Amino acid sequence: MKPYWKTGCPKKPRERGYTVFNFTYLLIVTFILFSLVFLFSCESIPEDETGPTKKEGKEINEEEEEEAEEDENDKKEKEKEDKQELYQDYKKKLPEEIRDLPANELGEIMILMYHEIGEPEAEWVRTPDNFRRDLEVLYEEGYRLISMNDMLDGNIDVPPGTTPVVLTFDDGTEGQFRYQEDQDGELIKDEDGEPVLDPDCAMAILKDFHEEHPDFGLEGSFYIFYENPFRQRELVERKLNELVEWGFEVGNHAYSHRNLSRLSEEEVQKELGKHVKRTREYLPGYEVRSLALPFGAWPSPESLAVSGSYEGMEYQHEAILEVGWYPANSPFHQDFDPLSLPRVRASEMKVDGTGIHDRIEQYRNHPERRYISDGNPDTIAVPEDKKEQVKEDLPGDMEVVVSD
Ligand SMILES: [Zn+2]
């Protein structure tokens, strides 16, 4: 069959021929161009990249980042609003003797020292009920939890009129963090197959209390030793990870709880460095920032408590916690010494007038000694006559303001 432009079609055969030729030509050129573009773009996509090209990916990443940033800002804004709402009239809830006191962020802070939580009450054992009562009294008396690391960083974010307090737990005893077991020692599981916290262990008591009183805070530092912190061997890794996930801290208490004053320099470094090493095996990259001296005993030389090394593992403690008997200075006070932090025993036995409830009673009579927050973590609010006592090297760009 002849092509139709050769059939003698009367209507402008050349023009139509040209048009058809042009159309075919265009199709071919377009096909080649598309093929080239396709080949080119195939080459520019790395094998492992199945989604958008790098450039598009980058734009999407930037968009995602912007969105995440906006979300973060929204969250912060919301937190700020919630805080303002919570802080409005907050002081009305506080005991009379501190309600009208000016903020004093140079005042004293108790670092409470717990050991076992269990039965019966003893010198180094607090019963679950007494522990609950401690939390209740602290809350009612206007104390709010901060972590040890927040104290070191001067990051004290508690409601106006309240006093920060630090909880520390030594020895990683079972009653501090325990999952329930049946009579045969098998873990009791919930309907999702997860182990169940013993409601009488410190961790469960703290979490439950926080649920009822969210403004109390949920913080605490656990000064554990090895091999078996919290005494459920198969759960060590799980517990250490949960502990950090829930916002608590792990501190050094020497690898095997030996009395550092009786060890050689090499042995001291082994006790302290091996602890950090083992902790990082469970918690990669975790920074162990503070040491609670076992038995309150210093090594010789004392500098080995602060830094040293064991098998290539360097340890560096920013704070050393001792055993008794006093409240600590504010981290903004010129006399704050993180390398010798006193603690208050959270006990009522053999405390000789220096235990938790003695101190709370003393503060009731001398509330002016307490750290009293202004509710703003970015400023250091101090009464006019104490301004001179603010230390020189303040963290970040914190500003000192006079309270009234
Ligand atoms: Zn100990």
Give the tags.
about 400 residues, alpha/beta, TIM Barrel, two-stranded parallel sheet, 2 domains, about 35% helix, globular, binds zinc ion, six-stranded parallel sheet, 10 helices, 14 strands
Outline of this structure?
The protein contains ten helices and 14 strands.
Account of the 3D structure:
- The chain has 404 residues and is of the alpha/beta class.
- The chain contains ten helices and 14 strands.
- It folds into two domains: 4-44; 104-389, TIM Barrel (Alpha-Beta Barrel), CATH 3.20.20.370.
- Residues 1-20 and 42-51 have low confidence and may be disordered.
- The structure holds zinc ion (ZN).
Q: Kindly report the CATH topology of the largest domain.
A: TIM Barrel
Bound molecules: zinc ion
User: What best-fitting shape do the alpha-carbon axes yield?
Assistant: globular
What's the CATH class label of the largest domain? Alpha Beta
Q: Describe the sheet with the most strands.
A: 6 strands, parallel
Number of strands: 14
Unreliable segments of 5+ consecutive residues? 1-20, 42-51
Q: What is the level-2 CATH architecture name of the largest domain?
A: Alpha-Beta Barrel
Q: Please state the structural category.
A: alpha/beta
End-to-end CA span: 106 Å
Please, what is the CATH homologous superfamily of the largest domain? Answer: Glycoside hydrolase/deacetylase
Give the % helix. Answer: 25-40%
Beta fraction = 5-15%
Mean pLDDT comes to 89
* Oligomeric state: single chain
